[in-house]
Amino acid sequence: MTVYGSFPGSRPRRLRTTPAMRRMVAETRLNPADLILPAFVREGVSEPVPIAAMPGVVQHSLDTLRKAAVEAREAGVSGIMLFGVPEDAKKDAVGTAGTDPGGILQVAVRAVKEEVGDELVVMSDLCLDEYTDHGHCGVLDADGRVDNDATLERYAEMAQVQADAGVHVVGPSGMMDGQVGVIRDALDTIGREDVAILAYTAKYSSAFYGPFREAVASSLTGDRKTYQQDPANLRESLRELAFDLGEGADMVMVKPAGPYLDVLAKVAESVDVPVAAYQISGEYAMVEAAAEKGWIERDKAILETLTGIRRAGAQMILTYWATEAAQKLGRA
Ligand code: PBG
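^ thats the input. predicted complex w/ PBG below
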C-alpha cells in the first residue's frame, strides 16, 4: 500500500459513527417548548379557508382556531401568535377593527383563552396592516406617507384592547419608531404591567412575506421600505435593539429568520433577554413547494431549518410547522 503524506492525527469522524453518538454530541437540541405557532383567524367564516401559497396553513374559523390551539398545546408548543383577518368591508383608513373590542383578533384571543387558559402563551400581532384599507402598518398623513406618531397613538389603543381581551404578550410588528415605549406606557396606564412585549426588533423589508399577504388578504400596494429595515443592514439592527431594550422590550425578535441568521447571531450575543426568530411565510412556502416537486425531503428540510435557527441563537422560533414539528420531536 502506498501512503500519501501522513495519516491524520485528528479524526472528527469518530464522533459521527452512530446515531446515538451523534445525538450525544449534538450542540443544538430542538424541543417543542422552543416553538410558537402563528395562526390566522378570519372573521365571518364557519369553515377554514386554505391559503394557496402556504399549503397546509389555513385562515381559521373561530372553531378550528380553538382546535388548533388545543392541538398545539397537546404537542408541547409554548405559545400561539394570533393574526386577525377582518371582513373586507370592515377595513378603513385608520384600521378601526384593530381597536374594536368586538374585532376579530380580540374575539379570537378570548376564544383561545377560553380553550387553553394559561397553558399556552397567547400572543397577538399588534399592527394595523390587517385592518387598514390601504394595507400599510400605520395611518397615513395628507401626502399618503405613513405617519409615525399618529400611528403610535393607534398602537397604544390596540395594546390596551388586546390586553383587555386577555393576551399574555403583544407583538408589535409595525416598525414604527418608539412603538415599544408607547405600548409599555399604554399598558401600564391601565394597570397591565403584567402584559409582556415581544419586540420585532429587526424586521426586514422582505420579499419572503409574499404568502403572508394572501394569508391576511392584504390590501397593500407598494412596499414597506420606509419603515421596515433594508436587507443590506446589520448595524442598524443593533441600533434598533438598543432602542427596544431601552423602551422596555421583554423579548426581542429577528424576522425573517433563514436569510438573516447573521443578524440573529449578533442580536443573541448582545442581549440578556429571550431572543425569538420568525420563520416567515416565504420560508415555509419554499420548503413546501420544493418538497411537493420531490426536490427535497420535506421533513428533514423542516428540522434542518429549525435547527439552524436555534443554532444561530434563537431560543424561541415562530414557525407555521410548530405543531407538526413538536409532534415529531415529542414532548421534552
Ligand atoms: C405585519 C406582519 C407581516 C408578517 C407578520 N406581521 C407582514 C409584513 O410585514 O408585510 C409576515 C409574516 C410572514 O410572512 O409569515 N403585521
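Residues 148-165 form the longest helix (18 residues).
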